């Protein structure tokens, strides 16, 4: 998302609720259960040491009250190195031998998720929820950086911006709207039901013709024009192309309540 054809984008606009964040939940009792298994087998002393510290820190946080969502440093990147060589087979060997083979695999999978939780926490991507009484680590499915613009609070990374110390706000120039002219047009009654209007090319073509006429009537040759229309116009109806002005630029952006 942050790059296009190998180059970093100048700006990325985040709107609605894209799947940009993966949450991994953990509770102190789960970390303690893995620690107990390691102690029973006298295995992996470096991992035991880290887990003991993490379990203690998690219990301390869970016993306190505070803001609904609060970031917490459960371990450092140096401590997370203890997890590097751990794989599922190593953890499966620690599971109670009395359990069925399938159940052993499920327990080992969950312990692997716990280690993933801790690796993310070591990067500073962890918070405690007073509502859920649990800890959450999160993986960002994009590379945050300069130029990301959150358009509204429905973007699922909006809350994390306030929790992650590595995400910084920057001051941007104030926008000057003094040369902006707003022109209000009443849309013809026959085009107001957009789903019906864009259901076929034959119904969408008159709508496309009307848009084109409005653009041409309210712009001058050489103007740069951006037309925002419903996604179905170019994708399903296949009838839309933006009108071009001599020596000017024309572009088309789309929107849809259901399609993007």
Structure description:
With 260 residues, the chain is α/β, with parallel strands linked by helices. It has two domains: 13-161, no CATH class; 189-255, no CATH class. Helix content is 36%, strand content 16%. The chain has nine helices and ten strands. The strands form four sheets. The protein has a four-stranded antiparallel β-sheet with strand order 4-7-6-5. Strands 1-2 form a two-stranded antiparallel sheet. A two-stranded parallel sheet has the order 3-8. β1 and β2 form a beta hairpin. The longest helix is centred in the middle third of the chain and has 22 residues, at 101-122. The chain starts with a strand and ends in a 5-residue tail after the last strand. The mean pLDDT is 83.
In percent, how much strand structure appears in the residues?
Answer: 15-25%
Q: Overall pLDDT, averaged?
A: 83
pLDDT under 50 segments (min length 5)?
Answer: none
Secondary-structure element pattern, one letter each: EEEEHHEHHHEEEHHHEHE
From the alpha carbons, calculate the radius of gyration and give it in angstroms: 27 Å
**Can you summarize the main beta sheet?**
4 strands, antiparallel
Identify the overall geometry: elongated
Category from helices, strands and their pairing: alpha/beta
In short:
The protein is α/β, with parallel strands linked by helices. The protein folds into two domains: 13-161, no CATH class; 189-255, no CATH class. The chain is built from nine helices and ten strands.
């Amino acid at each position: 998302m942050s790059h296009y054809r190998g180059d970093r984008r100048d700006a990325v606009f985040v709107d609605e609720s894209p799947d940009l964040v993966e949450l991994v939940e953990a509770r102190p009792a789960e970390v303690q259960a893995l620690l107990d298994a390691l102690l029973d087998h006298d295995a992996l002393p470096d991992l035991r040491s880290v887990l003991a510290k993490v379990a203690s820190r998690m219990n301390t946080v869970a016993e306190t009250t505070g803001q609904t969502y609060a970031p917490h440093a459960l371990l450092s990147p140096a401590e997370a190195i203890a997890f590097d060589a751990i794989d599922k087979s190593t953890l499966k060997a620690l599971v109670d031998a009395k359990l069925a083979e399938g159940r052993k695999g499920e327990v080992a999978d969950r312990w692997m998720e716990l280690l993933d939780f801790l690796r993310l926490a070591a990067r500073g991507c962890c918070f405690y929820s007073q509502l859920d009484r649990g800890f959450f680590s999160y993986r960002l499915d994009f590379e945050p950086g300069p130029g990301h613009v959150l358009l509204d609070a429905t973007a699922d990374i909006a809350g994390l911006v306030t929790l992650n110390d590595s995400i910084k706000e920057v001051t941007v120039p104030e926008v000057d709207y003094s040369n902006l002219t707003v022109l209000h047009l009443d849309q013809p009654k026959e085009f107001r039901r957009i789903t019906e209007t864009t259901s076929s090319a034959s119904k969408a073509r008159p709508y496309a013709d009307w848009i084109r006429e409005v653009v041409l009537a309210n712009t001058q040759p050489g103007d740069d024009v951006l037309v925002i229309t419903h996604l179905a116009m170019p994708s399903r109806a296949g009838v839309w192309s933006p009108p071009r002005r001599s020596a000017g630029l024309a572009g088309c952006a789309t929107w849809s309540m259901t399609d993007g």
